[in-house]
Amino acid sequence: MNLPVGFFRRELLKFHHLSTNMMSFLHISKRAQSTVAEVLTRFNLDISKQLVSPSAIPYIKSQEPITFTSNEAKRQRRRLLSRPGLVAVKRGMTCYFDNQGRRLPATILEIVQNEVVYNKTIEKNGVYAVQVGAGYKKPQNVTRPELGHFRNAKVSPKAYLCDFQVAKEGDLVPVGTELKADHFKVGQLVDCISVTKGKGTQGVMKRWGFSGGNASHGASKSHRSAGSTGQNTSPARVFPGKKMAGRMGNVTNTIFNLEVLDANAEDGYLLVKGCVSGSKGSFIEVRDALKKFGKHLINESKY
């Protein structure tokens, strides 16, 4: 007889309340009588004896459901990598000639003192993440809490800190580990995350690529204007998200699937194919290509 455990529990609780008042067993359904008797026999329970507590009835302990907005649910929905990335400094662009003589555009990324400063865990922070610091900062320009943070990791004060989330606890890197340019292999793909150049307040032609107004006769000082932006009587308003003049740039941008052309651990630089957002001297977060993860990485145990 394949019945759920919850049905057994309900009927046994019902029998427990009846037996406390010395009532008959006939009030339980005929189907339940045989079921309860079978369960009592299976667990060596005597019907003539009164059940001491409902906790004596066997049941399956249910787990607390994971809500959609919880940190664990958010972490499970993300596509996470199995190792952290590096923090580089953009030094400019150059050309690169491969073995076939092709001329390729390349961006020079300098790897400066990359060290693991802290490891975040589910119990403390709700995620598994490796905090990587790069560069150097004078101690007199660092606050006392930050100095204590670096002292606990036994590393020098860093100019830039960032977190790289990883899939599981086993992917965390020991604190104090130095990461070099050979963290990435030549030929693999990487993603570069950086802040774009700030352009300030710009018009619609530069910000959104509008063609502008009529440049012939009849147009008076309205060549670069946006034109009409509102509606008629209905709905008599401008919809949210309308492309208009405003601040341009200074936003986080990710360029995906850039090929590593060269990686030199001794000189501390990476050469990636193509362009990377940001100005010269800005910090760039370099990680394994998220969209191509698992298809191009070389399976080598680094740590």
TrEMBL record:
Keyword Hydrolase: no
GO cellular component: mitochondrial large ribosomal subunit
Keywords: Mitochondrion, Ribonucleoprotein, Ribosomal protein, Transit peptide
PROSITE patterns according to UniProt: RIBOSOMAL_L3
Region (Disordered): 214-241
Compositionally biased tracts (Polar residues): 214-235
Compartments it resides in: Mitochondrion
One of the protein's GO biological processes: translation
GO terms of molecular function: structural constituent of ribosome
Primary subcellular site in the record, as a coarse category: mitochondrion
Entry's family note: Belongs to the universal ribosomal protein uL3 family.
Name by which UniProt lists this protein: Large ribosomal subunit protein uL3m
Organism of origin: Pichia inconspicua
